[in-house]
């Protein structure tokens, strides 16, 4: 199934703009720039949306304008209005369980405690959407996670995350076309050791 909607997860407000939790927004901004798409605030969808003309056809881009733990409200509003099935949604998000610079693409599964994914699963009634997991690393202790994701990465970590975004951007048309196996082969083999 082709991807019809790409969602970048992040937190609203300038204080969060450069924090690890906004890695999904960093990538969706790159995609919008690549396709010359401009985001506009749309209160009906509780987010900023853009329609991108890609080589694979039109795709909706979304940045929820709610805090991370309410992301599902935005995703479900747009998906329901345009009748986009959950399997045709790709969510870009930060991932604690993999190192900066690594990428994992998968469909479904658990939410790993990620509040954005948790809310999307709840509001969509399914976990069967695609996830592009952008590694941000882990602080080493569960009690440090909140402060870690809501702070800026080191310069080296940010460079590694940006490199991962660049590599993922190179496979985005393959993902949109629905050839996820091909995208996984390329993205997973390019992960730094």
TrEMBL record:
EC number(s) on file: 3.1.1.29
Reaction(s) this enzyme catalyzes, per UniProt: an N-acyl-L-alpha-aminoacyl-tRNA + H2O = an N-acyl-L-amino acid + a tRNA + H(+)
Site (Discriminates between blocked and unblocked aminoacyl-tRNA): 11
InterPro entries in the record: Pept_tRNA_hydro, Pept_tRNA_hydro_CS, Pept_tRNA_hydro_sf
A GO term, aspect molecular function: peptidyl-tRNA hydrolase activity
Site-annotated residues for Stabilizes the basic form of H active site to accept a proton: 94
Positions bound to tRNA: 16, 67, 69, 115
Keyword annotations from UniProtKB, A to Z: Cytoplasm, Hydrolase, RNA-binding, tRNA-binding
Active-site annotation: 21 (proton acceptor)
rRNA-binding as UniProt keyword: no
A Pfam family hit: Pept_tRNA_hydro
Keyword Mitochondrion: no
UniProt subcellular location: Cytoplasm
Protein's job: Catalyzes the release of premature peptidyl moieties from peptidyl-tRNA molecules trapped in stalled 50S ribosomal subunits, and thus maintains levels of free tRNAs and 50S ribosomes. Hydrolyzes ribosome-free peptidyl-tRNAs (with 1 or more amino acids incorporated), which drop off the ribosome during protein synthesis, or as a result of ribosome stalling.
HAMAP family: Pept_tRNA_hydro_bact
Subunit details: Monomer.
Assigned protein family: Belongs to the PTH family.
Protein name as annotated: Peptidyl-tRNA hydrolase
Organism name: Vitreoscilla stercoraria
Highest classification ranks of the organism: Bacteria, Pseudomonadati, Pseudomonadota, Betaproteobacteria, Neisseriales
